[in-house]
Amino acid sequence: MKVPNKRGYFGQFGGKFIPETLTCCLQELEDTYKKVKNDKKFNEEVAYYLKEYAGRPTSLYFADNLSKLLGMKVYLKREDLLHTGAHKINNAIGQILLAKFMGKKRIIAETGAGQHGVAVATVASLFGYPCEVYMGEEDIRRQRMNVFRMKILGARVIPVKSGSRTLKDACSQAIRDWVTNVGDTYYLIGSTVGPYPYPLIVRDFQAVIGQESRRQILKKEGRLPDYLVACVGGGSNSLGLFYPFFNDKGVKFIGVEAGGFGLSGFNAASLIKGRVGVLHGAKSYVLQDKFGQIKNAHSIAAGLDYPAVGPEHAFYKSMNRARYTAVTDKCAIKGFNLLSQVEGIIPALESSHAVYYLKKLAKKAAGKIVLVCLSGRGDKDLEIVQEYINKRAKGQGARGKGNREKKGERR
Ligand SMILES: *Cc1c(COP(=O)(O)O)cnc(C)c1O
Fold first, then answer.
1. Is any atom of ligand 1 closer than 6 Å to the C-beta of 122?
2. Would you say the CB of residue 88 lies under 6 angstroms from ligand 1?
3. Catalytic residue among 88, 273, 283, 295
4. Which atom from ligand 1 is nearest to the alpha carbon of 376?
5. 290: Cα within 13 Å, side-chain hemisphere
6. What is the pLDDT of residues 220-246, one digit of tens each?
C-alpha cells in the first residue's frame, strides 16, 4: 500500500477537506513538491541552510547519568541545540525554500503560542520575505515575549478577534487570507497537520531528525535502538524521528501526548481521548464533545496544546505501529526538573513529557537502548514553570487558575 495514497490518505486518515477555492493552491503545492523532492539542487540548498544556519547535524548525546539512574541506555537527540531552540526551524527552512522555488512573494502563517511564528519570522527575515503571522488575541496576551520576538524579526503579527481567539481561529483566518491572495502568497504550516500535502511535506522536512539518529546510533551502538520516544502535539518532531525507522520492525515507537490536568479533565491527548473527525482540512483524531464540537485542549506545554493530531499518527495507531501514552502537566514538570538536575540540560516543557515517560518505561525496559527526541530547549518555559511552582507553594495548585482560564475561553 502506498502511503499517503494519491488522494492524500494515510489509511483512512488525512485527505483534503477544504473549500473549493483552495483546490488549485493545494494542487500547485503538491505538483511543485513532487518536482523538488528529488531535485538535487533543491535538496542541496535545504541541506546547506540546515547545516550552516540552523546547526545540523545535532548531536545524539548518550545521557550517562540518566541512564545509570534509570537502568537503561538513554540517548538524547539534541534538537534543542538548533538555532531558535527547537526542531521547528527544520520545517521552516524547507518550506521557505519551497516558497522561493514556487516564486511566491509573501509568507503567511498561523501560530498558537508563537513558537512556529518565531521560526517562520526567522526564515522570512533570512530570505527577505514580508511575513504576516495570524495569532489569536488571547494568545497574544499570554505570549507577549514571542509576539515581541516576531516583531523584532520584522514580521507583522495580526491579532485574530473571532471565536475563542486562539490557535484554531488563527488557522481559519490564515486560510481565508490564503484563499484571497493565493497567487503570490505561501502558507507555511508548522506541523504535520492540515490538508494534504502538508502532513507529508512537514514530515519529510523533519525526517532529517530520524535519518541522522539512525546513522548516529548505528555508529555508537552498532545496532538500532529498542525504543524511540517523542512528544506528540501536531506530530512533527515525533514523525520526523519515527518515519526513517518505519520498516525496522524491531524498533518500537512511543508517542507521548499531553495529559494536561489528567485524562478525565482538560488535556491535549487527541489520539487517546479523541474521536475520528475533521479539523483544519484533515481527518484524524480530534478532541470533541458529544455533538462533535471541537473541545478546547489544554497543556502546560504551549506546543502540545492542540485539539487534534497529524493523520499519519492516526494511521500508525490504527495499525499498531506506534503506541501512544500521556503524561500530565504535573509529571512534565518532574521530567523538566529531572533532566535539568541530572544532565544539566533544561528541556522544553513539550520535550519534558517524553523525558518523564522514561521513568515509566524503565520499569519494563531494563538494559534496553532508548532514543528520545529532545525537541527543544526550556529557556522559553522558565516563567511558566516558576509560576507553576509558586502556585503550588501557595497551596492553591496550578490547576485552579488554569481551569478557570480554560473555562473562560469556552464562553
Ligand atoms: C511545537 C513544539 C512541539 C510540538 O509539535 P510537534 O509538531 O508535535 O513536534 C514539541 N516540542 C517543541 C519544543 C515545540 O516547539
1. no
2. yes
3. 88
4. 13
5. 0
6. 999 999 999 999 999 999 999 999 999
